[in-house]
Each structure stands twice: as structure tokens, then as C-alpha cells.
Amino acid sequence: MRLVILGATGGIGRLLLRYALERGHEVTAFVRSPQKITLKHERLKVVQGNLLDAGQLATVMAGHDAVLSAFGPVTLGPTTMRALFGGAVAEAMRLSAVRRILLVSSAFLFSEMFFFGRVLRGMLFGNVVVDDAGMELAICRDYLDWTIVRPPRLTNGSLTQKYRVMEDRLPEGRMRVSRADVADFMLHEVEKPAHRQQIVGVAG
Question: What is the distance, to the nearest Å, from the Cα of residue 204 to the centroid of all Cα atoms in its chain?
Fold first, then answer.
């Protein structure tokens, strides 16, 4: 497949690049800071640009099979960056006629959460929740073939492929998952779609 990866310099994004190439896909990484990508491969193309510019995104997306996004600015303060990003991506996909997108969001958006998660959502991550909700709203369009991935606490643990997936809620049990397993799930889902136009929780 021909894949566009957004947020390719982050923890999940770097793993998406590596795993996608290992699985034989052609990959285009659209990033603000290409110098942060040190991986070299004949099937990897790195393009510099503005992730909030729908026109630039559409040009890069044209001719690809799917978009995988791990974009997520690291800030707890008030921001609309994710929501603006979601709007730009949705418009770019409309313009480029690419329908399939898998996008990482946050488990804090699930209404049913364990007690500690509800406390964190209220005390620390309220701004993130609002912005992530705006991003999801922008992506969940009828003309897009989307899957929203909401992981709980992310770790730098190893790839286990033993993660659990549930639609519209987090799986019960361990409220953490490795970035490697999230990346693996996203690639498995783009290769063999099982959760079209669904929000899924992924946990270790």
C-alpha cells in the first residue's frame, strides 16, 4: 500500500514508519521538521510542510491509499491545534479523494472511565480533551472511511501484539499500552479493516 504518515517524528509515528516499511509498504512522511527523521529507505519519502495547510496536505496525499496520523502536540494548556489539524486533514482528503484514515486520539474522551482517569481528565487534561474532541469531530465525516484510536496511558514498552481492542470503550483491565502496540494495531487495521467508521479503545 501507499501510506501517508502524519506526526511521523513522534513516539508512535516513528514506529509507524519503521513497521510500515518492514511490512513492505511505500511511505510518505509529511512533517514540519524533516531533520528529525533519520531513517533511510528506498520506499520512504520525507516531505516538509505545514500540517495545518489543507492544500499542502492534499498535494502530498494524492495517489495514496490511506493516511495514518499520530499527530499530537504536547501541551496541557488551552489550544485548538488538534482541532485545526483535523479540519485541515479532512479537507485535504476531500480534495485528494483519499478516503481511509486512522487517527490517534485520547482515551479521556470515553464517557466511561476508571476513577483515576476521571480525576486526571478533570484536573490536568481538560484542555486536551476539548481539543481532541474537536479533532475527532472534524474527521468523522460521512465521506471519509475513518477509524479513531483512543489509547490510555502510553508507554515505551516493547511490541507484544497482545493488546485488546473494543469499540466505543476501553477494554477492562490494564489501563496502559505501548506505543509499539498502538502502531501495530493501526497498520493491521489499515491492511485488514475491521473497524470502519468506529471509535476503538486499545489497551495492553
Answer: 17
Strand order in the sheet with 66-69: 44-48, 26-31, 2-6, 66-69, 100-104, 145-150, 198-203, 164-167
- Residue 144 is given by DSSP the state S
Count the neighbouring beta carbons within 10 Å of the beta carbon of residue 130: 15
**Closest CA relative to residue 70, chosen from 120, 20, 121, 23:** 20
pLDDT in tens, 11-31: 999 999 999 999 999 999 999
For the chain, give me the number of helices (H) and strands (E)?
6, 10
3-class SS of residue 135 = helix
What are the cell numbers at 8?
A: 511521523
Instruction: Give the pTM.
Output: 0.91
